[in-house]
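Q: I have 790 residues here and want to know how they pack in 3D. Can you give me a structure?
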Amino acid sequence: MNIQDEQTVPDHRAKNGSESSDKTTPQTLQIEGMSCASCVANVERALKSVEGVETADVSLASSEARVAGKQGNVEALIRAVEKAGFRARKLDDFGASDNGEPGSDEEPATAGKRTSVTSGFKRKFWIALPLAAVVFILDMGPMAIPAWHDWVAGHLTIWNSIQMALTAVILFYTGSSFFVGAWNSARHKTADMNSLVAIGTGAAFFFSTYALFFGVEGGLVQPHDVYFETAAIIIALILLGKWMEERARHRGRDAITGLLEMAPQKANRFENPEAANGDRPVETIPVKRVVPGDRLLVKAWEQIPVDGKVISGHSSVDESMMTGESVPVEKQVDDPVVGGTRNTSTSFEMIATHVGAETALARIINTVRDAQNSKPPIQRLVDNVASIFVPIVLVVALITFLLWLWLGSPAQAMVNMVAVLVIACPCALGLATPTGLMVSSGRAAEKGILIRDAVTLEEARMIDIIMFDKTGTLTTGVMEVNHVVPFDSPGSSHNPDSDHPPETGESVPLSVPAKKLLSWAASVERQSDHPIAASIMRFAESEGVALTDAREVETFMGMGISGTIAGRVVSVSAHTAHDEYTDEQQELITSAQDRGETVLLVQMDDKPAGIITVSDQIRPEAAGVIKKLNKMNIETVMVTGDHPRNAKVVADQLGIDHVEAGVLPDQKAERVREYQGLGKRVAMVGDGINDAAALVQADLGMALSGGTDLAMSSSDITLVGGSLGKVVDAIELSRGTLRIIRQNLFWAFVYNSIGIPLAALGLLSPMFAAFAMGMSSVSVVTNSLRIKKI
């Protein structure tokens, strides 16, 4: 950050999916009925067919769709999904089902309550398991027990009819979702995992039923050619795999569920806040009925319902959910408060300023959800493969059946076809990337790292060089005045906490005493909100300096500020080379720069009148962060508007590789381009105040946030709480996530590449294929959960 007021550059993102101003707010839908990558492709295709939709990202892991564009009719989106054979409903700002009418007092359901799919798979598995075990025993028992064999030989029809009845319950009750899903896909001329399971198990069941009633001894199909146990055990194993998969996916959603649980449900609103007689009744209302401007009462130990400002009373607020700091923060009148944080002391009154999707908590939730539902470039390829995968498998299964019908028997043909259909279910392929993203973005949110999207993870992994803004990023940003030195006085007013003695300057014309110099500088600076201006104001107040009205105050981006006092122009600006400096004055300035202090030149009518030196403290974690980045083979650059001499002091203390000093805010983006021109992948870390253009230009922009201000629209990654150590965490997390996603995709492709040929050659039994298919999905999700340990 440079040393004086700077204008924030508007956010016109040209990368990672920029959004034009005429787009509507992205809509989030919960999708029910998806089971594999082909389902995802079908839902995306249906959503993109709606007029006005520009992007539609569907995640199998979170069962959500994120739709952006000019299409604001949610009902049209839901109808398109339903037409494709799935179910959909809109989610509100906090991820709850938005089924009620506006203004309804019904409390929203949390993410953990939105679906009972997991419990459904569990319940049906425990029904299917004992029934499948009985069918297996009835089929295999006679082979192991001679007494059974002799009896079954004389009562084969009855024995197999019992298997058929039990298998029918397993298939058409516990496995009904597969057949319903397959039917819906067929109606819409698509195919997915349900199609493969339904065709495979259905073929085994109906072939066995035909053999039971119409088989002929010595014929192509004989009475004992029944495979009811195959169909029964396949369904039971797939249900087990789905249950375990859903359990693992639910664990991956822990972070977003935790954020949703932080969302307040109720608010205490004053019905008549302006009552003159003091009669101000309070009503408790759902938080979604709060509007900006409402006056609210926050009682002790209650959650603050929405973002706002304290207007009466004082208290302590636990903001650990936003900043990570466990120590409560004191709040006075006019202090901001954040929805979802907790009042740990006395009651106070507040006025609502941001509600619904505009609150900090809602923006965090939506940022995490966007990251979970976004897709890296490699996933686009996976989606394209998945869209044609199932039809190809159906053709392979048909060829397998015909070849084995020619080379072997109908029974062999049916069994090998079923094995091909079951082993080829693309569940693992559909879960490989989204589960990794879901766990990664959740893990990042837990550590206060908000990631824009999956492309950001890819960029973070490939970073070669990181550029750091100095003030407020590598340093604390809390400036302190060290010395006030008029050029016509042998004494100066200085900070008593400074380790350095006050400096003296040589007398020159148009001089003022130290306090007068400070008074005039502070009189101009009080119309600025820059950290340096605030430090001068604090020091003037502590010295008891009286201020004067300044008129015609102007700020110059990255340069300084000026104003007219009593007809004379007073300016405070960054020190630059000046012809009128004496040797003693130049020595004074050089000495301050060698100590790492920033030198401000105070001028009267364009003549040097004195200097004020300020400095801030290096963040305690900064040196450790730079050291870790060096070990990761990432170059570091400090970019600052400070003089090269005092910039080098800070860089040397931290071990930074390169220094770009004297850089104005509008020149930072140019410095980023210069490094990019050298073939480097550049990340920029700043506080978001004057770094917007550089953050946008960089391949990866990281913005430090104090916890309450999350409007970091220019950054790819927002580091909540302002800890510099999260820069390293973000890069390590991105590298680990992409490594695990690639592992997932590798094993998913290998599984299908090996499994399908083995099944087609008759080397893989259908029951083992079902077990392998279920475990492949579980292994992918379980591998993704390792991201939690990064």
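Q: Anything worth noting?
A: Residues 126 and 723 are 48 Å apart (CA to CA). The longest helix spans residues 725-760.
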